[in-house]
């Protein structure tokens, strides 16, 4: 007879549970259980999952089970692994007329504070990762900018060396002119000497040929060096532009870092508030 009475109490509560739950609003869920399994579940909050439904064994670490073990009303949080979302629940043992615990009744509401806390923690973690990535990018830009400055310094040294090369070419060009003049004078003197100056005429011709060949080579070298100078100037301009761009990017990254720091502080504040809820 007692077993029938116990079952009757639980069955009646299970039948009345939808009506009882409607008194608490649309964002709650309720369940009735016996000592071992869930008998009835009512979910008004559609975000609450149905992984634990009627007929499932009662998890041992939720309030509905603990209240029977401790013979008292239990208030605690339920992790989202059971019903898909975190819940804050209150559970009380159900007793028969003899005072024997025969089951439990529990009411749960979504724990938004826990949700906010989890999201805030993920938010902080994500921003920490973003901050690390930005710092790595900033460090890379600084390294590239330093390398670019080193290249610019080497190019400036090359420009200085090319100026010295121009001085050498001018010096050789003057020698070539003097040599040509010397060959011309030698040819005049050879013509005056007649037969006696024929041998000297050959030497003067060779001197003039050498002067002409040297002058031509100098012109070719000058053309090559001028082209090289133009290329170096073009490279210098591009490196300088890149340096300007690197400086702008570095400034932008500083602003991004500052914004990330502010958002990170906001996320931490949200997390602290959520922990108090």
Summary, kept brief:
With 277 residues, the chain is of the alpha+beta class.
General description of the model:
With 277 residues, the protein is α+β, with helices and mostly antiparallel strands. It folds into two domains: 6-110, PAS domain (Beta-Lactamase, 2-Layer Sandwich), CATH 3.30.450; 116-275, Helix Hairpins (Orthogonal Bundle), CATH 1.10.287. The chain is built from five helices and five strands. The chain has helices at residues 2-22, 63-70, 80-83, 112-193, 198-276, and strands spanning 28-33, 38-43, 74-78, 87-95, 101-110. It has a five-stranded antiparallel β-sheet, sandwiched between helices. A hairpin with a 4-residue loop joins strand 1 and strand 2 (38-43). The mean pLDDT is 75.
Chart the SSEs and their pairings.
Blueprint: H1 2-22, E1 28-33, E2 38-43, H2 63-70, E3 74-78, H3 80-83, E4 87-95, E5 101-110, H4 112-193, H5 198-276
Helix pairs in contact: 4-5
Biggest sheet: strand arrangement: 2-1-5-4-3
Q: For this structure, what is the CATH class of the largest domain?
A: Mainly Alpha
How many distinct folded domains? 2
Low-confidence stretches: none
Number of helices: 5
Q: Fill in the CATH topology of the largest domain.
A: Helix Hairpins
Superfamily (CATH H level) name of the largest domain: Methyl-accepting chemotaxis protein
Order of helices and strands: HEEHEHEEHH
Instruction: Tell me what portion of residues adopts beta-strand conformation.
Output: 5-15%
Mean pLDDT: 75
Main sheet attributes: strand count, strand direction, barrel closure: 5 strands, antiparallel
CATH architecture of the largest domain: Orthogonal Bundle
**How many strands appear in the DSSP assignment?**
5
């Amino acid at each position: 007879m007692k077993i029938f009475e116990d079952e009757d109490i639980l069955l009646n509560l299970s039948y009345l549970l939808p009506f009882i739950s409607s008194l608490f609003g649309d964002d709650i869920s309720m369940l009735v259980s016996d000592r071992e399994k869930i008998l009835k579940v009512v979910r008004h909050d559609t975000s609450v999952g149905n992984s634990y439904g009627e007929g499932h064994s009662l998890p041992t670490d939720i309030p509905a089970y603990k209240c029977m073990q401790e013979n008292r009303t239990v208030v605690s949080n339920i992790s989202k692994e059971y019903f898909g979302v975190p819940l804050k629940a209150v559970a009380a043992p159900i007793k028969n007329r003899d005072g024997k615990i025969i089951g439990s009744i529990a009411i749960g509401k979504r724990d938004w504070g826990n949700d906010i806390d989890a999201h805030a923690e993920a938010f902080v973690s994500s921003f920490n990762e973003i901050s690390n990535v930005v710092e790595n990018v900033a460090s890379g830009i600084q390294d590239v900018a330093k390398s670019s400055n080193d290249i610019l310094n080497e190019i400036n040294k090359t420009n200085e060396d090319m100026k010295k090369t121009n001085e050498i070419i001018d010096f050789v060009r003057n020698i070539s002119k003097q040599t040509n003049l010397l060959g011309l004078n030698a040819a005049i003197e050879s013509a005056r000497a007649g037969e006696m100056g024929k041998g000297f005429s050959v030497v003067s011709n060779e001197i003039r040929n050498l002067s002409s060949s040297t002058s031509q080579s100098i012109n070719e070298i000058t053309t090559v060096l001028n082209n090289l100078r133009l290329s170096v100037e073009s490279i210098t301009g591009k490196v300088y532009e890149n340096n300007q761009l690197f400086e702008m990017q570095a400034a932008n990254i500083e602003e991004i870092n500052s914004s990330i720091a502010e958002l990170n502080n906001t996320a931490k504040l949200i997390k602290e508030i959520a922990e108090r809820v």
